[in-house]
Protein backbone atom coordinates (compact mmCIF):
# COMPACT_ATOMS: atom_id res chain seq x y z
CA UNK A 1 0.00 0.00 0.00
CA UNK A 2 2.90 2.38 0.74
CA UNK A 3 5.62 3.10 -1.76
CA UNK A 4 8.50 0.64 -1.25
CA UNK A 5 11.03 3.31 -0.24
CA UNK A 6 8.67 5.51 1.87
CA UNK A 7 9.83 5.86 5.48
CA UNK A 8 7.38 4.37 8.00
CA UNK A 9 8.18 7.24 10.40
CA UNK A 10 6.03 10.29 9.73
CA UNK A 11 7.77 13.63 9.91
CA UNK A 12 7.14 15.56 13.12
CA UNK A 13 4.53 18.29 12.77
CA UNK A 14 6.16 21.72 12.77
CA UNK A 15 3.65 23.20 15.15
CA UNK A 16 1.97 21.04 17.85
CA UNK A 17 -0.02 21.45 21.04
CA UNK A 18 3.16 21.28 23.15
CA UNK A 19 4.69 24.36 21.55
CA UNK A 20 1.44 26.32 21.90
CA UNK A 21 1.29 25.52 25.63
CA UNK A 22 4.93 26.57 26.17
CA UNK A 23 4.28 29.85 24.37
CA UNK A 24 1.09 30.61 26.33
CA UNK A 25 2.72 29.82 29.68
CA UNK A 26 5.68 32.03 28.75
CA UNK A 27 3.34 34.91 27.85
CA UNK A 28 1.44 34.50 31.14
CA UNK A 29 4.68 34.66 33.14
CA UNK A 30 5.90 37.78 31.29
CA UNK A 31 2.52 39.49 31.74
CA UNK A 32 2.50 38.71 35.48
CA UNK A 33 6.09 39.91 35.90
CA UNK A 34 5.31 43.28 34.30
CA UNK A 35 1.89 43.55 35.95
CA UNK A 36 3.25 43.17 39.49
CA UNK A 37 6.18 45.54 39.05
CA UNK A 38 8.47 42.68 40.08
CA UNK A 39 12.14 43.47 40.39
CA UNK A 40 13.87 40.40 41.75
CA UNK A 41 17.18 42.25 41.98
CA UNK A 42 15.89 45.13 44.11
CA UNK A 43 16.78 43.72 47.56
CA UNK A 44 20.35 43.21 46.34
CA UNK A 45 20.92 46.64 44.82
CA UNK A 46 22.61 49.36 46.87
CA UNK A 47 19.40 51.04 48.03
CA UNK A 48 17.59 47.78 48.75
CA UNK A 49 20.57 46.36 50.62
CA UNK A 50 20.60 49.41 52.85
CA UNK A 51 16.88 49.07 53.73
CA UNK A 52 17.17 45.37 54.46
CA UNK A 53 20.22 45.97 56.66
CA UNK A 54 18.44 48.76 58.52
CA UNK A 55 15.39 46.58 59.23
CA UNK A 56 17.50 43.71 60.53
CA UNK A 57 19.65 46.01 62.66
CA UNK A 58 16.49 47.36 64.29
CA UNK A 59 15.35 43.80 65.11
CA UNK A 60 18.49 43.21 67.17
CA UNK A 61 18.78 42.47 69.93
CA UNK A 62 15.39 40.78 70.41
CA UNK A 63 13.58 41.92 73.55
CA UNK A 64 14.00 39.06 76.02
CA UNK A 65 12.51 40.71 79.09
CA UNK A 66 10.45 38.43 81.32
CA UNK A 67 7.19 40.28 80.65
CA UNK A 68 7.58 40.12 76.86
CA UNK A 69 8.63 36.46 76.95
CA UNK A 70 5.48 35.71 78.95
CA UNK A 71 3.41 37.50 76.30
CA UNK A 72 5.18 35.63 73.51
CA UNK A 73 4.59 32.32 75.29
CA UNK A 74 0.92 33.13 75.84
CA UNK A 75 0.57 34.11 72.16
CA UNK A 76 2.33 30.95 71.00
CA UNK A 77 0.11 28.72 73.11
CA UNK A 78 -2.98 30.52 71.85
CA UNK A 79 -1.88 30.06 68.23
CA UNK A 80 -1.16 26.38 68.94
CA UNK A 81 -4.59 25.97 70.52
CA UNK A 82 -6.26 27.68 67.53
CA UNK A 83 -4.46 25.34 65.12
CA UNK A 84 -5.48 22.23 67.10
CA UNK A 85 -9.11 23.25 67.55
CA UNK A 86 -9.32 24.48 63.95
CA UNK A 87 -7.97 21.19 62.61
CA UNK A 88 -10.33 19.21 64.86
CA UNK A 89 -13.31 21.21 63.62
CA UNK A 90 -12.07 20.65 60.06
CA UNK A 91 -12.06 16.87 60.64
CA UNK A 92 -15.56 17.03 62.10
CA UNK A 93 -16.78 18.93 59.03
CA UNK A 94 -14.61 17.21 56.43
CA UNK A 95 -15.05 13.56 57.37
CA UNK A 96 -18.84 13.26 57.06
CA UNK A 97 -19.00 15.52 54.00
CA UNK A 98 -16.00 13.78 52.42
CA UNK A 99 -17.62 10.39 52.91
CA UNK A 100 -20.93 11.58 51.48
CA UNK A 101 -19.19 13.03 48.43
CA UNK A 102 -17.22 9.84 47.65
CA UNK A 103 -18.86 7.92 44.82
CA UNK A 104 -17.66 4.66 46.35
CA UNK A 105 -19.90 5.43 49.36
CA UNK A 106 -22.83 7.14 47.68
CA UNK A 107 -22.64 5.92 44.08
CA UNK A 108 -25.40 3.75 42.77
CA UNK A 109 -22.99 1.18 41.44
CA UNK A 110 -20.36 0.61 44.07
CA UNK A 111 -18.38 -2.62 44.13
CA UNK A 112 -21.14 -4.66 42.68
CA UNK A 113 -23.47 -4.10 39.79
CA UNK A 114 -26.24 -5.82 41.70
CA UNK A 115 -27.85 -3.30 43.99
CA UNK A 116 -31.58 -3.70 43.81
CA UNK A 117 -32.16 -0.19 45.17
CA UNK A 118 -35.27 1.74 44.22
CA UNK A 119 -35.28 4.78 41.93
CA UNK A 120 -36.22 7.05 44.86
CA UNK A 121 -33.26 5.79 46.92
CA UNK A 122 -30.94 6.39 43.97
CA UNK A 123 -32.25 9.92 43.53
CA UNK A 124 -31.71 10.70 47.23
CA UNK A 125 -28.15 9.39 47.07
CA UNK A 126 -27.48 11.52 44.02
CA UNK A 127 -28.83 14.65 45.76
CA UNK A 128 -26.78 14.04 48.91
CA UNK A 129 -23.67 13.32 46.85
CA UNK A 130 -24.02 16.48 44.75
CA UNK A 131 -25.01 18.59 47.75
CA UNK A 132 -22.02 17.63 49.87
CA UNK A 133 -19.62 17.98 46.92
CA UNK A 134 -20.95 21.50 46.31
CA UNK A 135 -20.76 22.42 50.00
CA UNK A 136 -17.15 21.23 50.23
CA UNK A 137 -16.30 23.24 47.14
CA UNK A 138 -17.79 26.36 48.69
CA UNK A 139 -16.04 25.88 52.06
CA UNK A 140 -12.73 25.39 50.28
CA UNK A 141 -13.05 28.30 47.85
CA UNK A 142 -13.38 30.94 50.58
CA UNK A 143 -9.86 31.62 51.97
CA UNK A 144 -9.26 31.36 55.75
CA UNK A 145 -8.69 35.10 55.93
CA UNK A 146 -12.17 35.85 54.51
CA UNK A 147 -13.77 33.31 56.84
CA UNK A 148 -11.93 35.01 59.73
CA UNK A 149 -13.24 38.45 58.78
CA UNK A 150 -16.79 37.05 58.55
CA UNK A 151 -16.55 35.29 61.91
CA UNK A 152 -14.95 38.30 63.64
CA UNK A 153 -18.06 40.23 62.67
CA UNK A 154 -20.24 37.36 63.84
CA UNK A 155 -18.62 36.36 67.16
CA UNK A 156 -16.18 39.21 67.94
CA UNK A 157 -12.39 39.44 68.13
CA UNK A 158 -10.19 36.73 69.67
CA UNK A 159 -9.07 33.16 68.99
CA UNK A 160 -12.58 31.68 68.52
CA UNK A 161 -13.24 33.26 65.07
CA UNK A 162 -9.77 31.94 64.15
CA UNK A 163 -10.84 28.41 65.08
CA UNK A 164 -14.03 28.74 63.01
CA UNK A 165 -12.14 30.17 60.03
CA UNK A 166 -9.58 27.35 60.03
CA UNK A 167 -12.30 24.74 60.58
CA UNK A 168 -14.46 25.92 57.66
CA UNK A 169 -11.72 26.33 55.06
CA UNK A 170 -9.64 23.30 56.10
CA UNK A 171 -12.87 21.29 56.45
CA UNK A 172 -13.47 21.90 52.76
CA UNK A 173 -9.90 20.91 51.89
CA UNK A 174 -9.84 17.79 54.07
CA UNK A 175 -13.29 16.73 52.86
CA UNK A 176 -12.01 16.75 49.28
CA UNK A 177 -8.84 14.85 50.20
CA UNK A 178 -10.78 12.31 52.30
CA UNK A 179 -13.27 11.66 49.54
CA UNK A 180 -10.46 11.11 47.03
CA UNK A 181 -8.79 8.64 49.41
CA UNK A 182 -12.06 6.77 49.88
CA UNK A 183 -12.48 6.58 46.12
CA UNK A 184 -9.00 5.22 45.45
CA UNK A 185 -9.17 2.14 47.69
CA UNK A 186 -8.46 -1.42 46.60
CA UNK A 187 -11.95 -2.66 45.75
CA UNK A 188 -11.23 -6.36 46.36
CA UNK A 189 -11.49 -6.43 50.19
CA UNK A 190 -14.59 -4.22 49.91
CA UNK A 191 -16.20 -6.52 47.38
CA UNK A 192 -15.53 -9.42 49.75
CA UNK A 193 -17.25 -7.58 52.61
CA UNK A 194 -20.20 -6.73 50.44
CA UNK A 195 -20.44 -10.36 49.39
CA UNK A 196 -21.03 -11.36 53.04
CA UNK A 197 -24.26 -9.37 52.88
CA UNK A 198 -22.88 -6.30 54.66
CA UNK A 199 -24.74 -3.03 54.10
CA UNK A 200 -22.98 0.02 52.66
CA UNK A 201 -22.59 1.51 56.16
CA UNK A 202 -20.89 -1.68 57.38
CA UNK A 203 -18.63 -1.88 54.31
CA UNK A 204 -17.72 1.75 55.03
CA UNK A 205 -16.99 1.23 58.73
CA UNK A 206 -15.24 -2.13 58.57
CA UNK A 207 -13.59 -1.88 55.16
CA UNK A 208 -13.20 1.61 53.78
CA UNK A 209 -12.27 3.39 57.02
CA UNK A 210 -9.51 0.97 58.09
CA UNK A 211 -8.18 0.79 54.51
CA UNK A 212 -8.08 4.58 54.15
CA UNK A 213 -7.06 5.44 57.72
CA UNK A 214 -3.29 5.78 57.16
CA UNK A 215 -3.88 8.23 54.33
CA UNK A 216 -6.62 10.12 56.21
CA UNK A 217 -4.28 10.56 59.19
CA UNK A 218 -1.44 11.65 56.95
CA UNK A 219 -3.58 14.34 55.26
CA UNK A 220 -4.90 15.53 58.63
CA UNK A 221 -1.41 15.90 60.10
CA UNK A 222 -0.22 17.75 57.00
CA UNK A 223 -3.13 20.19 57.23
CA UNK A 224 -2.32 20.73 60.92
CA UNK A 225 1.18 21.80 59.86
CA UNK A 226 -0.36 24.23 57.39
CA UNK A 227 -2.85 25.44 60.00
CA UNK A 228 -0.24 26.38 62.59
CA UNK A 229 1.21 28.84 60.07
CA UNK A 230 -2.22 30.08 59.03
CA UNK A 231 -3.24 30.47 62.69
CA UNK A 232 -0.32 32.85 63.18
CA UNK A 233 -1.33 34.88 60.11
CA UNK A 234 -5.01 34.99 61.17
CA UNK A 235 -3.98 36.91 64.30
CA UNK A 236 -3.13 39.82 62.01
CA UNK A 237 -6.82 40.37 61.24
CA UNK A 238 -7.69 40.12 64.93
CA UNK A 239 -8.20 36.40 65.44
CA UNK A 240 -5.87 36.13 68.46
CA UNK A 241 -2.50 34.52 69.01
CA UNK A 242 0.97 35.57 67.89
CA UNK A 243 -0.26 37.32 64.78
CA UNK A 244 -2.06 39.89 66.88
CA UNK A 245 1.12 40.53 68.94
CA UNK A 246 3.13 40.92 65.72
CA UNK A 247 0.64 43.41 64.31
CA UNK A 248 0.71 45.51 67.49
CA UNK A 249 4.53 45.46 67.69
CA UNK A 250 4.84 46.57 64.06
CA UNK A 251 2.26 49.30 64.52
CA UNK A 252 4.14 50.70 67.49
CA UNK A 253 7.48 50.29 65.68
CA UNK A 254 8.69 48.08 68.56
CA UNK A 255 11.03 46.09 66.32
CA UNK A 256 12.86 44.37 69.15
CA UNK A 257 9.53 43.02 70.48
CA UNK A 258 8.68 42.03 66.91
CA UNK A 259 11.94 40.02 66.72
CA UNK A 260 10.94 38.00 69.78
CA UNK A 261 7.48 37.29 68.35
CA UNK A 262 8.95 36.26 64.99
CA UNK A 263 11.34 33.87 66.73
CA UNK A 264 8.41 32.47 68.74
CA UNK A 265 6.43 31.93 65.51
CA UNK A 266 9.36 30.14 63.92
CA UNK A 267 9.85 27.98 67.03
CA UNK A 268 6.23 26.92 67.22
CA UNK A 269 6.00 26.11 63.50
CA UNK A 270 9.14 23.99 63.72
CA UNK A 271 7.87 22.30 66.90
CA UNK A 272 4.58 21.36 65.21
CA UNK A 273 6.43 20.04 62.14
CA UNK A 274 8.53 17.80 64.39
CA UNK A 275 5.53 16.63 66.40
CA UNK A 276 3.60 15.90 63.23
CA UNK A 277 6.49 13.89 61.77
CA UNK A 278 6.80 11.97 65.03
CA UNK A 279 3.07 11.15 65.08
CA UNK A 280 3.19 10.16 61.43
CA UNK A 281 5.98 7.67 62.13
CA UNK A 282 4.21 6.25 65.18
CA UNK A 283 0.66 6.08 63.83
CA UNK A 284 1.10 5.24 60.17
CA UNK A 285 2.76 1.93 59.34
CA UNK A 286 4.71 2.22 56.11
CA UNK B 1 -36.64 -28.18 47.28
CA UNK B 2 -35.23 -25.75 44.76
CA UNK B 3 -31.70 -26.47 43.58
CA UNK B 4 -28.94 -24.41 45.22
CA UNK B 5 -27.76 -23.01 41.92
CA UNK B 6 -29.73 -22.88 38.69
CA UNK B 7 -28.10 -21.29 35.66
CA UNK B 8 -29.84 -21.16 32.29
CA UNK B 9 -28.26 -19.69 29.15
CA UNK B 10 -26.29 -17.27 31.28
CA UNK B 11 -24.40 -14.59 29.34
CA UNK B 12 -22.09 -12.02 30.88
CA UNK B 13 -20.64 -9.34 28.62
CA UNK B 14 -18.16 -6.75 29.88
CA UNK B 15 -18.05 -3.28 28.34
CA UNK B 16 -20.46 -4.44 25.66
CA UNK B 17 -17.66 -6.33 23.92
CA UNK B 18 -16.10 -9.26 25.68
CA UNK B 19 -18.36 -12.18 26.51
CA UNK B 20 -16.83 -13.72 29.65
CA UNK B 21 -19.65 -16.24 29.92
CA UNK B 22 -21.49 -17.44 26.86
CA UNK B 23 -24.85 -19.27 27.20
CA UNK B 24 -23.79 -21.27 30.22
CA UNK B 25 -26.29 -23.68 31.75
CA UNK B 26 -25.57 -25.52 34.96
CA UNK B 27 -27.54 -26.85 37.89
CA UNK B 28 -26.13 -27.67 41.32
CA UNK B 29 -28.29 -29.41 43.94
CA UNK B 30 -28.17 -28.66 47.64
CA UNK B 31 -25.22 -30.35 49.35
CA UNK B 32 -23.42 -31.08 46.09
CA UNK B 33 -19.65 -30.65 45.82
CA UNK B 34 -18.43 -29.38 42.48
CA UNK B 35 -14.93 -28.58 41.24
CA UNK B 36 -14.54 -26.08 38.44
CA UNK B 37 -11.52 -26.39 36.19
CA UNK B 38 -10.43 -24.64 33.04
CA UNK B 39 -7.73 -22.44 31.55
CA UNK B 40 -7.15 -18.81 32.51
CA UNK B 41 -9.85 -16.69 30.95
CA UNK B 42 -12.43 -19.49 30.93
CA UNK B 43 -14.81 -17.31 32.95
CA UNK B 44 -14.41 -18.98 36.35
CA UNK B 45 -13.94 -15.77 38.35
CA UNK B 46 -16.79 -14.10 36.48
CA UNK B 47 -19.02 -17.06 37.31
CA UNK B 48 -18.13 -16.76 41.02
CA UNK B 49 -18.82 -13.04 41.03
CA UNK B 50 -22.24 -13.74 39.53
CA UNK B 51 -22.90 -16.52 42.03
CA UNK B 52 -22.17 -14.26 45.03
CA UNK B 53 -24.42 -11.52 43.60
CA UNK B 54 -21.69 -9.00 42.92
CA UNK B 55 -22.26 -8.96 39.16
CA UNK B 56 -25.61 -9.15 37.41
CA UNK B 57 -26.21 -11.34 34.36
CA UNK B 58 -26.29 -9.63 30.97
CA UNK B 59 -28.79 -12.24 29.73
CA UNK B 60 -30.16 -15.53 30.93
CA UNK B 61 -31.38 -16.71 34.31
CA UNK B 62 -29.55 -17.13 37.59
CA UNK B 63 -31.53 -18.55 40.49
CA UNK B 64 -29.96 -19.14 43.90
CA UNK B 65 -32.01 -21.24 46.34
CA UNK B 66 -34.93 -20.56 44.03
CA UNK B 67 -34.54 -16.73 44.08
CA UNK B 68 -34.08 -14.92 40.78
CA UNK B 69 -31.22 -12.57 41.65
CA UNK B 70 -32.24 -9.87 39.19
CA UNK B 71 -35.58 -9.36 40.90
CA UNK B 72 -34.45 -8.81 44.50
CA UNK B 73 -34.74 -5.64 46.55
CA UNK B 74 -31.66 -4.21 48.25
CA UNK B 75 -32.55 -5.87 51.55
CA UNK B 76 -33.34 -9.34 50.21
CA UNK B 77 -30.18 -9.15 48.09
CA UNK B 78 -28.16 -8.62 51.29
CA UNK B 79 -29.98 -11.47 53.02
CA UNK B 80 -29.21 -13.76 50.09
CA UNK B 81 -25.54 -12.68 50.07
CA UNK B 82 -25.29 -13.52 53.78
CA UNK B 83 -26.19 -17.14 52.90
CA UNK B 84 -23.43 -17.36 50.27
CA UNK B 85 -19.82 -17.41 51.44
CA UNK B 86 -16.86 -16.73 49.17
CA UNK B 87 -13.19 -17.50 49.57
CA UNK B 88 -11.03 -15.63 47.08
CA UNK B 89 -7.61 -16.15 45.55
CA UNK B 90 -5.91 -13.44 47.57
CA UNK B 91 -6.02 -9.79 48.60
CA UNK B 92 -9.53 -9.85 49.94
CA UNK B 93 -8.84 -9.13 53.59
CA UNK B 94 -8.48 -5.68 55.12
CA UNK B 95 -4.74 -5.71 55.92
CA UNK B 96 -4.92 -2.94 58.54
CA UNK B 97 -7.37 -4.88 60.73
CA UNK B 98 -6.49 -7.57 63.22
CA UNK B 99 -7.10 -11.21 62.29
CA UNK B 100 -10.01 -11.38 64.76
CA UNK B 101 -11.75 -8.48 63.03
CA UNK B 102 -11.28 -9.83 59.53
CA UNK B 103 -12.81 -13.13 60.63
CA UNK B 104 -15.65 -11.36 62.48
CA UNK B 105 -16.44 -9.61 59.19
CA UNK B 106 -18.01 -12.90 58.12
CA UNK B 107 -20.88 -12.08 60.48
CA UNK B 108 -21.50 -8.59 59.07
CA UNK B 109 -24.46 -9.71 57.00
CA UNK B 110 -26.31 -10.97 60.08
CA UNK B 111 -25.41 -8.48 62.82
CA UNK B 112 -26.95 -5.06 63.34
CA UNK B 113 -24.53 -2.18 62.73
CA UNK B 114 -24.46 -1.35 66.47
CA UNK B 115 -23.82 -4.98 67.41
CA UNK B 116 -21.07 -5.24 64.78
CA UNK B 117 -19.40 -2.06 66.09
CA UNK B 118 -19.56 -3.41 69.63
CA UNK B 119 -17.97 -6.73 68.58
CA UNK B 120 -15.14 -4.86 66.88
CA UNK B 121 -14.62 -2.70 69.96
CA UNK B 122 -14.90 -5.39 72.62
CA UNK B 123 -11.50 -7.05 73.16
CA UNK B 124 -12.91 -10.32 74.51
CA UNK B 125 -12.30 -13.24 72.15
CA UNK B 126 -15.40 -14.26 70.21
CA UNK B 127 -16.28 -17.96 70.48
CA UNK B 128 -17.10 -18.46 66.79
CA UNK B 129 -13.91 -16.73 65.68
CA UNK B 130 -11.73 -18.79 68.05
CA UNK B 131 -13.39 -21.99 66.81
CA UNK B 132 -12.90 -21.05 63.15
CA UNK B 133 -9.26 -20.04 63.65
CA UNK B 134 -8.62 -23.29 65.55
CA UNK B 135 -10.14 -25.24 62.67
CA UNK B 136 -7.74 -23.64 60.18
CA UNK B 137 -4.86 -24.04 62.63
CA UNK B 138 -3.90 -20.44 63.41
CA UNK B 139 -5.68 -19.76 66.72
CA UNK B 140 -2.44 -18.21 68.00
CA UNK B 141 -2.75 -15.37 65.48
CA UNK B 142 -6.01 -14.08 66.94
CA UNK B 143 -4.84 -10.52 67.75
CA UNK B 144 -2.15 -10.34 65.06
CA UNK B 145 -2.32 -7.62 62.40
CA UNK B 146 -3.44 -9.27 59.18
CA UNK B 147 -0.78 -7.50 57.11
CA UNK B 148 1.91 -9.17 59.26
CA UNK B 149 0.81 -12.69 58.25
CA UNK B 150 2.30 -14.77 55.43
CA UNK B 151 0.29 -15.42 52.26
CA UNK B 152 -0.65 -18.92 53.41
CA UNK B 153 -1.74 -17.70 56.83
CA UNK B 154 -3.84 -14.95 55.26
CA UNK B 155 -5.53 -17.58 53.12
CA UNK B 156 -6.45 -19.47 56.30
CA UNK B 157 -7.89 -16.26 57.73
CA UNK B 158 -10.05 -15.96 54.61
CA UNK B 159 -11.25 -19.55 55.09
CA UNK B 160 -12.00 -18.79 58.75
CA UNK B 161 -14.06 -15.77 57.72
CA UNK B 162 -16.18 -18.00 55.48
CA UNK B 163 -16.55 -20.52 58.36
CA UNK B 164 -17.83 -17.80 60.69
CA UNK B 165 -20.28 -16.67 58.03
CA UNK B 166 -21.61 -20.27 58.00
CA UNK B 167 -23.26 -19.99 54.56
CA UNK B 168 -25.54 -22.47 52.78
CA UNK B 169 -23.51 -22.16 49.61
CA UNK B 170 -19.72 -21.98 49.86
CA UNK B 171 -17.81 -20.65 46.86
CA UNK B 172 -14.04 -20.77 46.62
CA UNK B 173 -12.23 -19.17 43.67
CA UNK B 174 -8.81 -20.80 43.47
CA UNK B 175 -8.51 -20.80 47.26
CA UNK B 176 -5.16 -22.57 47.23
CA UNK B 177 -3.30 -20.94 44.34
CA UNK B 178 -1.11 -18.96 46.76
CA UNK B 179 -0.21 -21.70 49.23
CA UNK B 180 2.22 -24.61 49.16
CA UNK B 181 1.00 -28.03 47.92
CA UNK B 182 0.74 -29.60 51.38
CA UNK B 183 -1.39 -26.76 52.72
CA UNK B 184 -3.41 -26.74 49.48
CA UNK B 185 -4.27 -30.39 50.06
CA UNK B 186 -5.20 -29.57 53.66
CA UNK B 187 -7.43 -26.61 52.82
CA UNK B 188 -9.26 -28.43 50.04
CA UNK B 189 -10.01 -31.41 52.28
CA UNK B 190 -11.07 -29.03 55.05
CA UNK B 191 -13.55 -27.35 52.68
CA UNK B 192 -14.84 -30.70 51.44
CA UNK B 193 -15.29 -32.02 55.01
CA UNK B 194 -17.06 -28.87 56.12
CA UNK B 195 -19.46 -29.03 53.22
CA UNK B 196 -20.06 -32.72 53.95
CA UNK B 197 -20.77 -32.16 57.66
CA UNK B 198 -22.96 -29.10 57.24
CA UNK B 199 -24.76 -30.34 54.12
CA UNK B 200 -23.51 -27.22 52.32
CA UNK B 201 -23.26 -26.74 48.61
CA UNK B 202 -19.61 -26.30 47.64
CA UNK B 203 -18.24 -24.93 44.38
CA UNK B 204 -14.46 -24.66 44.15
CA UNK B 205 -12.34 -23.64 41.20
CA UNK B 206 -8.91 -25.23 41.19
CA UNK B 207 -5.75 -24.78 39.23
CA UNK B 208 -4.65 -28.25 40.16
CA UNK B 209 -6.59 -30.91 38.26
CA UNK B 210 -5.26 -33.64 40.61
CA UNK B 211 -6.78 -31.92 43.65
CA UNK B 212 -10.09 -31.56 41.84
CA UNK B 213 -10.20 -35.20 40.75
CA UNK B 214 -9.18 -36.44 44.20
CA UNK B 215 -11.73 -34.53 46.28
CA UNK B 216 -14.82 -33.90 44.18
CA UNK B 217 -17.51 -36.23 42.84
CA UNK B 218 -18.40 -33.80 40.04
CA UNK B 219 -16.01 -31.93 37.78
CA UNK B 220 -17.12 -29.07 35.57
CA UNK B 221 -14.77 -27.98 32.79
CA UNK B 222 -15.17 -24.40 31.59
CA UNK B 223 -13.58 -23.02 28.46
CA UNK B 224 -14.11 -19.73 26.67
CA UNK B 225 -17.12 -18.98 28.86
CA UNK B 226 -18.85 -22.21 27.80
CA UNK B 227 -19.43 -25.56 29.46
CA UNK B 228 -16.82 -27.97 28.10
CA UNK B 229 -17.75 -31.02 30.18
CA UNK B 230 -19.65 -31.90 33.34
CA UNK B 231 -18.62 -35.37 34.47
CA UNK B 232 -17.68 -37.52 37.47
CA UNK B 233 -13.88 -37.78 37.89
CA UNK B 234 -13.62 -41.38 36.64
CA UNK B 235 -14.94 -40.37 33.22
CA UNK B 236 -12.43 -37.61 32.69
CA UNK B 237 -9.85 -38.62 30.13
CA UNK B 238 -6.49 -37.19 29.21
CA UNK B 239 -7.96 -36.13 25.82
CA UNK B 240 -10.71 -34.13 27.52
CA UNK B 241 -8.18 -32.40 29.74
CA UNK B 242 -5.80 -31.53 26.92
CA UNK B 243 -8.74 -30.23 24.89
CA UNK B 244 -9.79 -28.11 27.84
CA UNK B 245 -6.41 -26.54 28.39
CA UNK B 246 -5.27 -25.96 24.78
CA UNK B 247 -5.69 -22.34 23.97
CA UNK B 248 -7.74 -21.66 20.91
CA UNK B 249 -6.89 -18.95 18.35
CA UNK B 250 -9.93 -16.81 19.14
CA UNK B 251 -8.86 -16.24 22.72
CA UNK B 252 -5.54 -14.69 21.84
CA UNK B 253 -5.27 -10.95 22.05
CA UNK B 254 -8.12 -10.47 24.48
CA UNK B 255 -6.63 -9.14 27.72
CA UNK B 256 -6.58 -12.06 30.08
CA UNK B 257 -7.80 -10.11 33.11
CA UNK B 258 -10.89 -9.02 31.20
CA UNK B 259 -11.69 -12.60 30.28
CA UNK B 260 -11.10 -13.73 33.83
CA UNK B 261 -13.58 -11.20 35.10
CA UNK B 262 -10.82 -9.87 37.32
CA UNK B 263 -11.40 -6.38 36.03
CA UNK B 264 -14.37 -4.84 37.70
CA UNK B 265 -16.73 -3.10 35.31
CA UNK B 266 -17.07 -0.34 37.93
CA UNK B 267 -13.50 0.08 39.14
CA UNK B 268 -10.47 -0.58 37.02
CA UNK B 269 -8.01 -2.45 39.21
CA UNK B 270 -4.32 -1.73 39.31
CA UNK B 271 -3.44 -5.36 39.42
CA UNK B 272 -5.31 -8.43 38.30
CA UNK B 273 -6.54 -10.88 40.92
CA UNK B 274 -3.44 -12.95 40.63
CA UNK B 275 -0.37 -12.69 38.53
CA UNK B 276 0.45 -16.36 38.80
From TrEMBL, chain A:
Keyword set includes DNA damage: no
Keywords per UniProt: Cell membrane, Membrane, Transmembrane, Transmembrane helix, Transport
Pfam families assigned: BPD_transp_1
Residues in ABC transmembrane type-1 domain copies: 76-276
One term under GO cellular component: plasma membrane
Subcellular location field: Cell membrane
A GO molecular-function annotation: ABC-type phosphonate transporter activity
Membrane topology: Multi-pass membrane protein
TM region(s), chain numbering: 20-42, 79-103, 145-168, 203-222, 231-252, 258-279
Main location: membrane
UniProt cross-references to InterPro entries, sorted A to Z: MetI-like (IPR000515), MetI-like_sf (IPR035906), PhnE/PtxC (IPR005769)
Signal peptide per UniProt: none
Family that this chain belongs to: Belongs to the binding-protein-dependent transport system permease family.
NCBIfam families per UniProt: PhnE (TIGR01097)
Identification of the protein by name: Phosphonate ABC transporter, permease protein PhnE
High-level lineage: Bacteria, Pseudomonadati, Nitrospinota/Tectimicrobiota group, Candidatus Tectimicrobiota
Gene name of the encoded protein: phnE
TrEMBL record, chain B:
Annotated ranges, domain ABC transporter: 5-249
Keywords associated with the record: ATP-binding, Cell membrane, Membrane, Nucleotide-binding, Translocase, Transport
InterPro entries in the record: AAA+_ATPase, ABC_transporter-like_ATP-bd, ABC_transporter-like_CS, ABC_transpr_PhnC, MetN_ABC_transporter-like, P-loop_NTPase
GO cellular component: membrane
The keyword Repeat belongs to this UniProt entry's keyword annotation: no
Tree of life domain: Bacteria
Molecular function, one GO term: ABC-type phosphonate transporter activity
TM region(s), chain numbering: none
Keyword Phosphoprotein: no
SUPFAM superfamilies: P-loop containing nucleoside triphosphate hydrolases (SSF52540)
PROSITE patterns assigned: ABC_TRANSPORTER_1, ABC_TRANSPORTER_2
One Pfam family this sequence matches: ABC_tran
Designated name of the protein: Phosphonate ABC transporter ATP-binding protein
Amino acid sequence: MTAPNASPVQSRPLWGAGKTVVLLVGAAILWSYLGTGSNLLLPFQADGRHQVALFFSQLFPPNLSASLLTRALRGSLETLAVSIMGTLLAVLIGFPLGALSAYTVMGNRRFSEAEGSSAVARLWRRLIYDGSTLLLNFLRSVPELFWALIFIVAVGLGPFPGVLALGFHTGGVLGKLYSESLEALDSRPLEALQATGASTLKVFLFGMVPLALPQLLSYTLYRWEVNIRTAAVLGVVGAGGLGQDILVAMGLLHYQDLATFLIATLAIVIAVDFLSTFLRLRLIPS
Amino acid sequence: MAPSIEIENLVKVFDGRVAALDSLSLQVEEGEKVALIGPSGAGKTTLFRLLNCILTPTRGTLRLQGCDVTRLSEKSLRELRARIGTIYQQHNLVPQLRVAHNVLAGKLGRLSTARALWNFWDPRPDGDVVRALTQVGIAGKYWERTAALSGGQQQRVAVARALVQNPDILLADEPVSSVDPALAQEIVSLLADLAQEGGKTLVVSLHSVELALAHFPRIVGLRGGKLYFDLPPDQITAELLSGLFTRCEAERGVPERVLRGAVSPVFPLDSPYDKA
